[in-house]
Amino acid sequence: MGVTLPLMLVAQAAEGAHKVGFDSPFEVNFGMFFWTWLIFIGLFLVLKKWAWPPIVRLTEEREKKIAQQLAEAERMNAEARQALEEHQRLVARAKEDAQALIAEAKSVAEREREQLLTRTREEQAQLLDRAKREIQAERDRAVVELRREAVDLSLAAASRLIGERLDSNANRRLVTEYLASLAEQH
């Protein structure tokens, strides 16, 4: 028995060393509980002293930067809305100006058209009057020429009939007076 007792203790120790887990999920190991809390509190104090202040500072800086970016975005959005409204006003004003210019151009074109039509009608009337005057003058000349030829023909015919030659100027005057009296009767 002398040798077997130490071997049994070693076997039990080896069996206990291989046993890592708990027999029951409700079993509490106070040694493990104590050391876990001690490490947690130590790590908490170390993190609180050296890690959290820079993390909190960086977080606050990031928060401020995001707030500034949001404010800048809001400002730019307001400026963009204002620029859009101004652009829309300018486009509307440009459309109105274009419509006014088109209307003005149409009225000017209509006035010019009317002036050109009036001027053309006046020129046409003047040309017609001048043509009528020229026709009347030409007709009067033709009538005078025709009368002169009629007088010459009448004198020639009368001279032949009479057989002797009469004074042509006196005869021409007599026939012209006779034809003029006939023209006044008609």
Q: For the report, how would you describe the main beta sheet?
A: none
Task: Label the overall shape.
Answer: rod-shaped
Unreliable stretches: none
Average predicted local confidence, pLDDT: 82
SS strand fraction: under 5%
How many DSSP-defined strands?
0
Order of helices and strands: HHH
Structural class call reads: mainly alpha
H/I helix tally: 3
* Rg calculated over all Cα atoms: 67 Å
Helix fraction bin:
over 70%
- The overall number of domains is 1
End-to-end CA span: 188 Å
Task: Describe the protein's architecture and organization.
With 186 residues, this protein is mainly α. The chain has one domain (47-185). It is built from three helices and no strands. Helix 2 (30-162) packs across helix 3 (168-185). The radius of gyration is 67 Å and the shape is rod-shaped.
Brief descriptors of the model:
single chain, 186 residues, mainly alpha
Gist of the model:
The chain is 89% helix and 0% strand. With 186 residues, the protein is mainly α.
Sequence-ordered SSE layout with sheet pairings:
Elements: H1 4-18, H2 30-162, H3 168-185
Helix pairs in contact: 2-3
